Amino acid sequence: MSSQTPSSDSLCCVPCIALKKALLLKTEYNYTKSQLGVARDSISILNKVVSKQDSVILKQDSSIIIYKRNETDFVNVIKNKDKEVGLLEEKIVEQKKHKRLAYGVSILSIILGVLIAL
Q1: What is the C-alpha to C-alpha distance for residues 69 and 61, in angstroms, rounded to an integer?
Q2: Are 3 and 16 in contact (CB under 8 A)?
């Protein structure tokens, strides 16, 4: 079959090399078109993945903020409890002084009572 022979109106004569180039070009076009479709699908999927990762990061950031706030609250509670412990230790020391003073006054009263009784 020769592509140089004239034919009817519905057929045209094209050199074989031009036909081969046209077929190669069409094949490359179809291949590139399918690659573009795959690339677009990949981009779409990756956009969804990135969006979900962003939402996870935002949730983690809010969790971190809550944990830091809780940590600050606990540190404040500990400081307040330490102050209370300090005040209680001071009261204990004061009560021990009063107790010693009371024992001293009691002993002096007993000694005075014995001296007066003699």
Answers
A1: 12
A2: yes
